[in-house]
Design a protein that fits this description.
One of its GO terms (biological process) is carboxylic acid biosynthetic process. It holds the Pfam family Aldedh. Keywords: Oxidoreductase. The structure is a single chain. With about 130 residues, the protein is an alpha+beta fold. The protein has a domain of about 55 residues. Helices cover about 10% and strands about 15% of the residues. It has a three-stranded mixed sheet with strand order 1-2-3, with no helix packed on it. It has a two-stranded antiparallel ribbon with strand order 4-5. The N terminus is likely disordered.
Amino acid sequence: MDRFPFPVRVDSYKSYVTSAGHLGENYAQPTVLADMTHDMRLASEETFGTVAVLFAFDEEGGKLFERRTGVRLFPVAEVLEVGMVGANTGIISNVAAPFGGIKESGFGREGSKYGIDEFTHVKTITIGGLA
C-alpha cells in the first residue's frame, strides 16, 4: 500500500487505517481513517478519493443528535462554511436541491432553479419611442 489517490503516504497514517487495500501505484481501495486529529493533512485537504476520515466530536457534536428530531443539526450546520450538509444519509444531493461548494471545495451551484443562475447573465435592453 503506497499511496492514496493524491500524493500522501499511507504509512504515515498506518496506525489510523481501519480498512484499506491496494490496487496499483495511485489507487487505494475505500479506506476509513479513525481517531484523526485536526492537525493532520487530511483534516484540511480534500482527498477526491474513497477515504472517510473520522474525528471525535467535541461536546457540541456529541449533543448533535441527542433529540429524536435532530434539531441540534441546524445551529451547527449554520456555522459551517460549506455548500452542503447531510445527516444520517450517504447521498446529500437531490435534483431539486442546489449542488455545489464554497471556498476550496469549489464555487458555484448546479441543479435546481439556483443552478441555472451560474450559466446566465441578466441584461436589460430598453428601447424608447416604441408605441
